[in-house]
Design brief:
The protein contains eight helices and eight strands. By secondary structure, the chain is an alpha+beta fold. The protein has a domain of 163 residues: Gyrase A, domain 2. The relative contact order is 0.21.
């Protein structure tokens, strides 16, 4: 049995740069002459990118594409796949035996909800609450995985045996999205003080969003800066 308190995000491949935004936008006024901008230095057109972001001309941002390999608990995937502007291919419990890797909250993860939906906050738990969570996770996952192995050992199909596994088990997937879709994801799945429309995501999916943003900012620094300056509003 393995227990993790993190998620992992790896950039597998990308066709993404600030110049992608520039040539895609310029075709509307320059036609075939916009091809000269394909490999041009986007720094000279940073004003154009800021204009597109500010006035929410979103389609030029769709020509930059990134593929990530992400490992996260299944309950995080259920939230992630609400974003239907991405393409997914996930490992399958029908075709492979799932590894006994489970999520358990880190000590610094807030545990106590105060208030009601729409007007609540999460506060740190006590030492006793942390111990209860850790013990409960380990007991439940160990029993669930033992029953999973029991069914597999009896010759039960993997797609049936997996029904006992909890949503804290890790799954991995390739996620492909364009820069516009990623900005939409970040606007909803990160809580920041500079957002025009604050969002309050579950901490575990925010951990995914933080890694996405770091990787994307390295690929498209001008576009990322314009996104932040515009209050993190997706175009």
């Amino acid at each position: 049995m393995r227990y993790r308190s993190d998620v992992s995000v790896e950039l597998v491949k990308a066709s993404a740069s600030d110049s992608d935004v520039v040539f895609a936008a310029r075709v509307s006024t320059q036609g075939e002459r916009s091809r000269a901008s394909i490999d041009a230095d986007a720094a000279e057109a940073s004003g154009l990118i800021r204009f597109l972001m500010r006035d929410r001309h979103g389609s030029p941002f769709e020509h930059s594409v990134m593929t990530f390999y992400v490992a996260a608990p299944i309950f995080v995937w259920r939230e992630h796949m609400r974003h239907r502007m991405s393409s997914y291919n996930e490992e399958s419990g029908r075709y492979r035996v799932l590894e006994p890797v489970f999520y358990t909250p880190a000590p610094q993860r807030n545990l106590v909800q105060v208030g009601k939906p729409g007007a609540y906050e999460f506060l740190p738990g006590t030492q006793q609450q942390q111990e209860v969570v850790s013990d409960a996770v380990r007991r439940a996952t160990a029993e669930a995985y033992a029953q999973y192995q029991r069914m597999l050992g009896a010759g039960v199909a993997r797609e049936v045996a997996r029904t006992v596994l909890p949503v804290s088990i890790y799954s991995s997937a390739y996620v492909t999205m364009n820069a516009r879709a990623l900005m939409n994801f970040l606007s909803l799945r990160r809580h920041t003080d500079d957002s025009h429309f604050p969002s309050y995501p579950q901490r575990e999916i925010e951990m995914v969003a933080e890694q996405y943003e770091d990787l994307w900012a390295g690929l498209m620094p001008i576009t990322h800066a314009a996104f932040v300056a515009n209050g993190r509003v997706a175009p």
